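Appendix B. Extra example for self-study. Work through it before the problem class; the solution is given directly after the inputs so you can check yourself.
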Amino acid sequence: MSLVEIRDVDKSFKREAQTVDVYNGLTIDFEEGSFTALMGPSGSGKSTLLNLVAGLDKPTRGSVRVAGQEVSSMSSSQLASWRARTIGFVFQSYNLLPVLTAQQNVELPLLLTNLNKRDRAERTAIALGVVGLQDRMDHFPRQLSGGQEQRVAIARAIVADPTLILLDEPTGQLDSKSSDEVLELLRRLNVEFRKTIMMVTHDAKAASSAKTVLHLEKGVLLEREAVKAGGGLSAPGGVAVTS
Amino acid sequence: MKFLPLVLANLKRHKLRTVLTTCSVALALFLFASLRTVVTTLNAGSEVSSSSRMIVQNATAFVIPLPQSYATRLASVPHVQAVTWANWFGGKYGDGKKFFANFAIDAKSYLEMYPEMVIPPDQKEAFLKERSAAVIGEGLMRTFGWKVGDNVTLQGTIFPGDWTFTIRGVYHPTLKEYGDDQMLFHYDYLYEREPTRVTPGWFIMKIDDPNAAPTVAKAVDDQFRNSTAPTKTGTEKAFAAGFASMWGNVKLLMSTIGMAVVFAILLVTANAMMMNQRERSGEVAVMKTIGFSDRRVFALVIIEAAVIALTGAVIGLGAATLLPIVTGFGDGGFLPGFHVTQSTFLVGASVALLLTVASGVFPAWQAAKLPVVQALRRVE
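Solution. Structure tokens for the complete assembly:
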């Protein structure tokens, strides 16, 4: 069953006097429970795809549906509350709020719910437990390593139990060890917690953690691969593409 | 309330900037409230003055005295029930740094004329009996730590020499606008030492009907028009209003300075708030990605501005309230009852609210309308 349906999407940007086309009639489906890595050179439209799915950007034409809801036609306030319930977003540079502790950063999405303080604290502790940072709750981002910061960011992304987790180069600033930890965590989220994950990456090793890899170039899908257990490639699965 | 830790954490981001911005708001509100209090105090003086008492002064100038003989002639004017008089003594106490108003009065008639000055009966009796006695406002007693029975020596400035008085009574004003910081003593005591120089500075008449005041004023002034000391008569209320109006330009100046200070601080606060928002555009974009709506982001920025403005207002208005208590400003009888009124508090609170809105709206609107994708691209 498709969780994300992208149909005939055109996307273009205005850059000074020029119009730059990113996609022209892109159609892709992402199934529920899939873990997809989006690869491709800079400017191929990987991050734009995440932004469209998250409702942060609107397509010039076409339809983006997530969990049966048309994202591209929602108002700004509808998008905000939909995003709070449906999407967990992880950035390359973590983007934790430096003035908040790890616990407060993770709690942020829960402030938008009707949960009381005790329930928020409980769920925050669980999310930090999932990423293995219960003992760093009161630390500020500056007191954490890059890998720990990214794990806090992942805890923030999953704390409200979203349907879909979007990651933009989550290992781009991490060393090898931290990168492995984060990728292992993502695999667990996908397998144990049945989270649907879309991850933009330049890193082949990171991509091999996914179940499916999509290669984009200039907004066109060049190749799709399925990843075998252990990192090899096999027949595609979890993603249907027309481009 | 659940967003309060987020607001406070943001305010603590640049502690020094937040403290300085709050201090500038506090200073603006302090100056605004203090300057406005001078204006309200001046106006209050005329508002509480009686309209059934009339003041007769020299038409040429307030400082030129009137003949003693006028007292009997004034008493015979229709509608006049009682007449008393007073004289500005202008003595200084000690090194003269703490100045206070001191008057020579026709004791019995003056105290009857001013029931607003409440004196315990035994003290009043003691004062009336003794020629060198004085009654002093309770505020002035506190200022100098005097007690009943103490001797107080003033150095005369208009009437040279040392003048020693014995405190026999303490008065308490029924309204603080009347002031509790004057010293009153017997006119006869002054006259006794300076018989050739002393005549009443002004007369006060009590009339039976406030509506008759214009008639009485005309009758009095007509009576003395062609004398060597023509008079100018008006109600005490008009006299106080006239005294306040002498400050007319000062009042305008104070109001203008107050508003200018508030406007300057508005610019400072708005600038600080905008600087905060510019620095945090990436974080705002992240919050929007998490699901914070434009409206919520707008509210959070406005609340930050409100915390700064309201904290500044509490400190500024609090300091303005404490000013006369701590410094004794207003002592001396020139600005009796100098205190921050309820209306000044309300206007100050409104100014703080205005500061919140004016300094917060633009940065809040900028944050609410921040294009997320572009902002994220800058931080990524």
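Self-check: The two ends of chain A are 20 Å apart (CA to CA). If your reasoning did not lead you there, revisit section 3.
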